[in-house]
Specification:
Rossmann fold, 2 domains, 5-stranded mixed sheet, alpha/beta
């Protein structure tokens, strides 16, 4: 029944898609203008509302660039309790700048992390305060067309390609499928590690990239869990019962990864970008106590970790055994070198162009 009721949303999707199509045409025809800057600007985003694995791809770019170029990330700062332009500092929290920027700030303290709703205004503010910035990474900016990035990277989930989706509310797309035309490169994320050459070719045909577009394929690589807070469990005990407590768009890949090595895995899901309260910690404790086995651990994501740290005192008092599971992306078909060269070539060309009189 719900499947049929969902079709009632289709007219609203058509209307919303039409509004976005008109907006994009206004930008394409120059009626609405986009600002360009004289330094490399790389945007990472997607067509869907979330869950494509965008954040680990931004982190990949940070690791790639930060040792050679003074790099900054600029995000909107979704769901923060502040407004305007802010630079992350020693006292910043997820509540101040948002969970994803806070994650970048904790993991890469040598990189400038800033937030601002109006990114067209935030870039000059950033450069005014730190004029030595050489590269700017725009996080989740594919639809933010007031800035024209030099390189537009679009991430799409292998299990829900944009080619098979629809505009919200009927589907999960933020705009029509043809928005992919603005991308310089398309990254198919969360692929199975053993993706075949034949399926790769089939996906490329389905996407139908334009002549100037590159298509890359990545998979998730989970690292070794580490304690959320000092004094927490230092390693994941063999045979432990695991409670996955997280607020991300799609926790399924994480759960499937854990089930490959652990038989006793349970999910306690919260809404995406969820800010935890004491009642949620009580819920975690209750769920953990219901699990079987002498060894029990709560496992969460790095994005959730920065939000959970807002309740550090309560976590310490409750002595909840919380560990964090890190994740990175890996390029399939030995394409990491090609992708890295693609990024470095763009950055070098953009810097050279910006230096011309």
């Amino acid at each position: 029944m719900w499947q049929y009721l969902n079709y009632l949303l289709y007219p609203f999707s058509l209307l919303y898609g039409l509004v976005l199509w008109i907006r994009n045409r206004l930008y394409d025809n120059g009626v609405l203008t986009s600002v360009e800057f004289d330094l490399p600007v790389i945007a990472v985003g997607n067509l869907s509302v979330g869950g494509t694995g965008k954040t680990p791809h931004v982190e990949y770019l940070i690791r790639l660039l930060k040792d050679q170029y003074r790099t900054a990330t600029l995000s909107r700062g979704y769901n923060r309790n502040t407004k305007g332009f802010l630079l992350a500092g020693p006292q910043s929290t997820a509540a101040d700048i948002g969970d994803e920027p806070m994650q970048f700030h904790r993991k890469f303290p040598d990189v400038t992390v800033c937030v601002g709703e109006e990114r067209m205004l935030a870039v000059p503010q950033l450069l005014g305060e730190q004029p030595d910035i050489a590269v700017i990474l725009l996080d989740d900016a594919f639809q933010h067309r007031s800035i024209k990035p030099g390189l537009n990277l679009m991430v799409t989930d292998y299990s829900r390609l944009f080619t098979r989706d629809h505009v919200v509310p009927f589907g999960r797309l933020r705009e029509g499928r043809k928005g992919y035309h603005r991308a310089n490169a398309i990254i198919v994320s969360k692929c199975p590690p053993g993706l075949s050459v034949q399926e790769k070719a089939a996906i490329v045909r389905e996407i139908a990239p334009l002549p100037h577009q590159r298509v890359f394929f990545t998979t998730l690589q989970y690292g070794t869990p580490y304690p959320l807070l000092p004094g927490g469990p230092q390693q994941l005990p063999p045979g432990a019962a695991i409670l996955v407590a997280c607020g991300i768009a799609r926790p399924e890949p994480m759960v499937q990864h854990l089930l490959q090595k652990h038989a006793n895995v349970h999910l306690l899901a919260f809404p995406d970008h969820y800010y935890y309260a004491r009642k949620d910690l009580d819920k975690m404790k209750q769920e953990l106590e219901h699990l079987d086995g002498p060894q029990k651990v709560i496992l969460t994501t790095e994005k959730d970790a920065v939000r959970l740290r807002l309740l550090e005192d309560q976590l310490q008092a409750m002595q909840l055994p919380v560990m964090v599971l890190p994740v990175e992306v890996s390029f399939l078909f030995e394409a990491a070198g090609s992708f890295n060269s693609y990024i470095f070539d763009y950055v070098a060309e953009a810097i050279a162009a910006g230096a011309e009189p």
